[in-house]
Design brief:
126 residues
């Protein structure tokens, strides 16, 4: 396998280039519920995920997603959003360099279940 090293990247059809560090290092959809959401069956990661291998159900409202390639450190940015059967959940994420832990809570901060959503990690890979 060859390695291509670049500072900036420009997709075909785009008029501007961007720094490679601005491209998502990982992104995924998840469904921790017993209901099908967004075409994802129960307890699955989206087939459109990037740089993730699997997730472990850590209990009510919490799961840990393992990364294929680790981040360079824990000082990176993540974006997350979640939904449940009542559409009332807020998603909180805590991270290590090799995994992302997702905690889904309801309005009074108690653990929620039946969550589905998306996350993206931005930053440098190790």
């Amino acid at each position: 396998m060859s390695t291509l090293k670049v500072t900036n990247i420009q997709a075909t059809g785009e008029t501007t280039s961007r720094a490679v560090s601005g491209v998502a290092a990982a992104h995924f959809g998840f469904n921790q519920s017993t209901t099908t959401y967004f075409g994802m069956s129960s307890n699955t990661l989206s087939s459109q995920s990037f740089n993730v291998t699997s997730f472990v159900d850590d209990g009510t409202g919490q799961m840990t997603v393992a990364l294929v390639s680790s981040m360079a450190n824990t000082g990176y940015t993540y974006l997350s959003g979640a939904i449940d059967t009542n559409n009332t959940r807020t998603l909180y994420s805590l991270s290590t360099a090799s995994s992302l832990t997702i905690k889904s809570n309801d309005g009074d901060s108690s653990a929620a279940q039946d969550s589905a959503g998306w996350s993206a990690l931005l930053g440098d890979l190790a």
